[in-house]
Amino acid sequence: MKIFNDIGNYFLLMFRVFEKPEKHSIYWRQTIMEIDKLGIQSIGIVAIISVFMGGIITLQLTYNMTNPLMPTYLIGLGNRDTLILEFSCTILSLMLAGKVGSNIASEIGSMRVTEQIDSLELMGVNSASFLILPKIVAVVFISPILFIFSVFCGIIGGLIAGPSVGVVTVAQYMSGIRTMFVPHYVSFSILKTLVFGFLIATVPSYWGYYVQGGALEVGKASTRSVVSTSILILFFDLVLTQLLFK
Amino acid sequence: MIEIKKIRKSFENRDIIKDISTVFEKGKTNLIIGQSGSGKTVLLKSIVRLIEVEEGEILFDGRDIRRMNFRDLKKLRQEMGMVFQGGALFDSLNVADNVRFPMDMFTNMTAAEKNRHVDFCLDRVNIKGSHHLFPSEISGGMRKRVSIARAIALNPKYLFCDEPNSGLDPVTSILIDNLIKEITVEFDITTLINTHDMNSVMEIGDNILFISTGEKSWEGNSTQVLFTRNKKLNEFVFASPLSKRIRDLKQREDDE
């Protein structure tokens, strides 16, 4: 029964989040700060993971598809499509659910237990909207940018790893990158990142906003937010893949 | 003026607030006293509707906060200031920005006007030269004072203080008490203070409401509190041998 209670409370919270802001200029300023904190400061980790994953995917494809009948350009093509279709949207979102999600849950949870949220309410501020809306806008805005950046870094990773170990030449790899490009894959993945971005911002916010207790509960809320966001990302990945590729 | 009529609140079928009625007067410091766990904080948070009560009326100059929709509630809350137990300052903002926050949110003041008003509020609570410090960089007493400065930033009609002296040394406690008293008289506001600090009771208790296990047990002022026959209140007020000696000395003085 608790799950239904949580779902109901989540939607009630969302109704409050999307109410008209008290002052747009303040919300705008908050949004810019959140873009920096949640998005820009994630660029480094996204770059590192994507470069390595691009390299690893390239090597795995090479070693597992060694066949004289198989054209070598398939290595570049395989790396590109893996990055676009799953890695740079789904796996990256799972990683962001850990980094950004725990940050959001612990930040809002700490504000709850130290009565900062009560303080906002007492001033007449819609605390749900003030704290959560800028995070939603920031994460939803930055997610597609991080996705494109991740694909780019992954391709670079493959370009470094493949030719450097001698399993594929730069020309063969780049030929694969340009072969049979399907633009729908990109729009499909961007749509997925928008949905995942919304989940990454709202689910941890929900767990943080309703924390009761002290530091221990904030920690639990943070863990719960990462677990539930990850499960929801995978669930929506399955649903969207079925809907958009049918 | 704030009037509460027969308010009741329970958690998990356990009554925490039982049919409390009273009037908190304007321009006076109204104290809610009682032992830890007696329901003081629940009562205070119920009055400002941070906690929803099950029964009763809570009237702010005749306006029932319980019947208000979300929009009207937000408007009424702009007339309130609250000092929370731990200060509840925003960690990400420095002292000046914490005080400026309500002005940013609800006024159309220019930057220069806001700066002047921030200086005025911080001056009023005797804070100078600490505008740029963050809450983690200041002492507990200073945090309380900044919290008071933020609470008075929009000239509230109602001021609520939840244990403003908790965790403070006696000297700082007296400073905070006097500050709240001065502000109450100066701005003619209705002030409610939750406390179990006997010094506050004696120094600034214009009206005192004593609650015990969620019930109103006694009501009076700081002079009456010394000579009450209410057993529970006597146990609370004269819990320490020192306070008993003070009472005896005062009694002897009065007799002479």
Give structural notes:
The complex is a heterodimer of chains A (246) and B (256). Chain A has one domain. Helix content of chain A is 85%, strand content 0%. Chain A is built from 9 helices and no strands. The longest helix of chain A has 41 residues. With 256 residues, chain B is an alpha/beta fold. Helices cover 39% and strands 24% of the residues of chain B. Chain B is built from 9 helices and 10 strands. In chain B, strands 6-7-8-3-9-10 form a 6-stranded mixed β-sheet, with helices on both faces. A 4-stranded antiparallel β-sheet of chain B has the order 2-1-4-5, with helices on one face. The model of chain B has no long low-confidence stretch (mean pLDDT 88). The chains are: A mainly alpha (246), B alpha/beta (256). At the A-B interface, helix 5 of A face helix 2, strand 6 and helix 3 of B.
Features:
heterodimer, A: 246 residues, mainly alpha, 0% strand, B: 256 residues, alpha/beta, Rossmann fold, 2 domains, 10 strands
